[in-house]
Amino acid sequence: MTSGLTLDGMAALFGAMALLAAVPSVSVLIVSARAAAAGFAHGALAAAGIVAADILFILLALFGLALAAEAMGEAFHWLRYAAALWLLWLAIGLLRADAARPAEAAPPRPTMLSSFMAGFLLTLGDQKAILFYLGFLPAFLDLAAITARDALIVVLIAVVAVGGVKLAWAFAAARAGGFAGPRLARGLNRAAAALLAAVALWLAVAGSASL
Q1: For residue 211, what are the contacts with CB-CB under 8 A and spacing of at least 6?
Q2: Has residue 157 been placed in a domain?
Q3: 158 lies in which domain range?
Q4: Residues whose CB is less than 8 angstroms from the CB of residue 171 and which lie 6 or more positions away in sequence, other chains included
Q5: Residues 13-60: pLDDT tens digits?
Q6: Cα torsion for 5, 8, 14, 17, to the nearest 10°?
Q7: Whole-angstrom Cα distance, residue 58 to residue 65?
Q8: How many domains in the chain?
């Protein structure tokens, strides 16, 4: 059976997702705040909510892009250019952003459900997330050959990569009661910006090659 995802693509996708998940952001802040205020379990549930929303966005992006590739045919490369510009804009935004600051402490004694929903609704309400995956995933998958198995693999990669990193943040916050220092935050931002810029360049080159 033809697959749209190679072993190299899986490894690259895992590394990219893990790096981007580690960048200090609002999602990391909510995980850290819940863990610091109410314990690791609450941070873990917030992380689970974030991953659940990411899975929804990934599935929408994968099958939406597959349908677009089939419908647009050779003109699909123009969508690659749009995606490249979007990712480049995100990279510039990361470079310009100040190091994230700790969020205010979570309300006392949050419920388990509220911690999960905090992560889920926070990510679900981020309209840029779906646009991010629309621009990000074509660099790692052959959309013309995407299968249900490929989609499942991408979901599992997201669960392990994104979920694992967010759990690490939750554990660190629960133990230390704090957030990443500005030096670490700047380093992660720069690394993620470089990754996004590289993916944008790859998409632009791939679009040019298909002309």
Answers
A1: 77
A2: yes
A3: 7-99+110-209
A4: 35, 40, 43
A5: 899 899 989 887 778 888 988 888 788 999 999 999 999 999 988 888
A6: -80
A7: 10
A8: 1
